[in-house]
Design goal:
Amino acid/polyamine transporter I, two-stranded antiparallel ribbon, 14 helices, 2 strands, single chain, mainly alpha
């Protein structure tokens, strides 16, 4: 099956060897198109916020226009019999159709919604963040959700969901477009809008570009704020005097993210992004709840209503979707979290301005206990994953989980006896 980058390039009449459009885990060498788009978006961010916003505005306008065109043109080809059954019965395997399939799919594609929260990381660059942030986030979230639903409604209406089996990337959309036509005497459907396939390719390419642009901007701004506090090195908060952007920060992320895009399979990266975002949302909900109780007096530009009900519902919803994700995704999440905790305990705690620059301040014991809990959970998840795939199959992830967990259990347990300061 042709990989997604190859399908996109084919839409523009460009052909590259398969080894240069897929990573080593998918039988290739390197995914050059993915590297190219990340480098391009990073250089745009380095150029300046105004330029990035202008280009992003054009990209969003084009892709929304194509999506709306697909919905309008495809609506008249909807055959309501294709919606029966509207929710296919579960095949007997967890996450394969049925209710569990819906929740697993929602968790996997959750990354489609991460661009909205990233807007908040640029609040310091907005003229009136108190008014602009809620309008921008909630308004765009509402519009995109409606478009997502209508797009899926048309796709599954013009042809049965079974015709999408085994398709990936842009292939399902191409299948739907091929069914938007009239049937000749031989029973063959002749597409009425063959040009729409190329337009969809453009929309998908622009969609990836805009998401990558917003994500890189959001991540660089998060690291900028962390660096200003001392949690990570000062290079991440260095601002270029000419462009007024954290250029070195952007360059480092360009190199790091490019490496991931070049060699790690898209499925793995997508699931890591979804589970990481869901967990981050859980932490945000917990933070809102804790800060409302512990620091009710601090000024708030935005105030979450109905606390603690809203945070509790947010935690429950995100955790519910996380449970339905594959176990190997949980292993990667826990390993990633332990690496982050290592960086905090080794570097961040000693240099944080808010933490008074000491690794013996109050709360460090709790941080180490959290590390022990994560390591124990990693052992459990490792065995659950191996059980789901069978103990007679490859055990690499299980061995990585056990090794990583044992090292961290010993590391954190050995430092539990350290005294904490009263501050």
């Amino acid at each position: 099956m042709e990989p997604l980058p190859g399908k996109i390039l084919d839409g523009f009449g460009i052909t590259l060897p398969s080894e240069l459009i897929t990573g080593p885990w998918d039988g290739g060498i390197i995914n050059l198109p993915a590297v190219f788009i990340i480098v391009l978006m990073s250089l745009l961010l380095i150029k300046g916020t105004r330029e990035s916003a202008f280009v992003n505005g054009i990209i969003v306008a084009v892709k929304i226009a194509v999506v709306i065109t697909f919905i309008i043109l495809g609506w008249k080809y909807i055959n309501t019999s294709n919606y029966d059954p509207y929710i296919p019965d579960n095949t007997g395997k967890f996450g394969d159709f049925g209710f569990s399939g819906i929740i697993r799919a929602a968790a996997i594609v959750f990354f489609a919604y991460i661009g909205f929260d990233a807007v908040s990381t640029a609040a310091q660059e907005a003229k009136n963040p108190k008014r602009d942030m809620p309008i921008g986030i909630l308004g765009s979230l509402l519009i995109c959700t409606i478009l997502y639903i209508l797009f899926a409604h048309v796709m599954t209406g013009v042809t049965s969901y079974t015709t999408f089996a085994g398709k990936d990337g842009i292939a399902p959309v191409a299948v739907a477009i091929d069914h938007m036509g009239t049937t000749d005497a031989a029973g063959v459907i002749k597409p009425d809008y063959p040009w729409l396939n190329r337009a969809i390719v453009v929309a998908i390419l622009f969609g990836y570009a805009s998401v990558i642009l917003v994500m890189l901007m959001g991540q660089s701004r998060v690291f900028y704020s962390m660096s200003k506090d001392g949690l990570i090195p000062k290079i991440f908060s260095a601002v270029n005097p000419k462009t007024q952007t954290p250029a070195k920060n952007n360059l480092l992320f360009m190199a790091f993210v490019s490496a991931f895009a070049a060699f790690v399979p898209a499925r793995v990266v997508g699931e890591m992004t979804s589970i990481g975002t869901l967990f981050a949302f859980i932490l945000v909900c917990i933070g809102v709840w804790v800060m409302r109780n512990k620091m009710p007096e601090i000024p708030r530009a935005f105030k979450t209503p109905m606390v603690p009900l809203v945070p509790i519902l947010g935690i429950a919803t995100c955790l519910f979707m996380m449970v339905f994700l594959p176990m190997d995704t949980w292993i990667r999440l826990l390993v990633w979290m332990l690496i982050g905790l290592d960086i905090y305990l080794v570097y961040g705690a000693k240099n944080s301005k808010l933490g008074n620059g000491t690794d013996s301040r109050k709360g460090m014991k709790l941080a180490r206990l959290t590390g022990i809990a994560l390591a124990l959970l990693l052992v459990v998840v490792g065995f659950l994953h191996q059980k789901s795939v069978g103990f007679d199959t490859d055990r690499t992830l299980l061995y990585i989980s056990l090794g990583f967990a044992v090292v961290h259990l010993g590391l954190y347990a050995s430092k539990l006896g350290r005294p904490e300061s009263a501050e």
